[in-house]
Amino acid sequence: GADLNQDYITHCENEGIRTEFHFPVMMLTSNWWPVTVSSMFNISNELLPRLTHFKKYYMKRYIGRKLDILLQYSKGEVQTLYTKKKYILQVSFYQMNILLLFNEFPTMTVEKMLDKTQIEPNIFMPALVSLIKMKILNCQDINPDQLNEHFQETNLSMNNNIRVNDAMKNDKIKINLMKIQQANPMNKIDPNSVYSSVFEERKLAIQAVIVLIMKNRKTLKHNLLLSEVIERLARVFKPDIPAIKKCIDLLIEKQYMERDDKERDLYKYLA
Questions:
Q1: Same domain flag for 56 and 83
Q2: What are the φ/ψ torsions at residue 230 (nearest 5 degrees)?
Q3: Rounded CA gap, 195 and 73, in Å?
């Protein structure tokens, strides 16, 4: 609550820790809020030290308690320092981590962004799409005319190049990007095309997971790859084996990976 926030600020001041940004926390008890802890990912260098410091402070203050950080319910504000007119972007924690990548890299492919953040693809892609639709980020491979209400994850590919839009313009100083991410584009799709759209989104998620696994492992046996893909996506949906095999073939065709010449059930990642 408010007392904990103020006590933490005082604690930081006493330790001589400079607070570059406001860091309010809301404490929920598991008895009253039966929530699921989100899967972890690579939190940005700007945010990780503060999160780690607060967790140490809390665990020392309340010995014996368990503290989980619910990233999926977290939000914040970031300021654009690269635009002529300064904007404040109200973003989800996932959107924030995506944006903060560009403090380090001027341009990245979708694949590299996924690899750097390690955010689950089914969470990452809607967050990225929301930032592109609002023209906070530019996709150099997408025609601006495509950025309408029907633009979605399936319009992007792993090798698309993304960068910040330093020419962005908006009538508002404060821009709420969480509303865009939360909006469900499926509501505006013809019911007859829902199955096809879901299938395409799942296919993209499977491909993204395969690429991440192979990039980390470099080489992997067929059955182990299948098992790991199913395990990684189990929280979202259960991919069937034929769908995974099709995605593997597609990624081989796109030269993301290849079969070993001698061991045909062994895959190699191609950088």
A1: no
A2: -60, -40
A3: 29
Task: Answer for the pair 164, 138: CB distance below 8 angstroms, yes or no.
Answer: yes
Handedness of CA 252, 255, 261, 263 (dihedral sign): negative
Spatial contact of 89 and 180, defined as CB atoms under 8 Å apart: no
Q: Are residues 13 and 36 in the same domain?
A: yes
Q: Whole domain around residue 112: which residue ranges?
A: 74-188
Please give the C-alpha separations between residue 134 and each of 137, 173, 261, in angstroms, as whole numbers. Answer: 8, 14, 46
β-pairing, 266-269 vs 257-259, is antiparallel
* Residue (of 247, 250, 253) closest to 232 by Cα position: 247
* Run of H or E residues at 269: strand 266-269
> Starting at the edge strand that comes first in sequence, how are the strands of the sheet with 161-164 ordered?
107-109, 161-164, 137-139
Q: Which helix (H) or strand (E) holds 244?
A: helix 241-253
Q: Are residues 177 and 217 in the same domain?
A: no
* Residue-by-residue pLDDT tens, the chain, 271 positions: 558 888 988 998 888 887 777 788 877 666 544 456 666 788 888 888 888 999 999 999 999 888 888 887 788 999 999 999 999 999 999 999 999 999 999 999 999 999 999 998 888 999 999 999 899 999 988 877 777 667 777 778 889 999 999 999 999 999 999 876 654 443 343 434 334 555 677 888 899 899 999 999 999 999 999 999 999 888 777 888 999 999 999 999 989 999 999 998 999 999 6
Ramachandran area for residue 64 (φ above 0: left; ψ -120 to 50: alpha; else beta): left
Q: Are residues 59 and 69 in the same domain?
A: yes
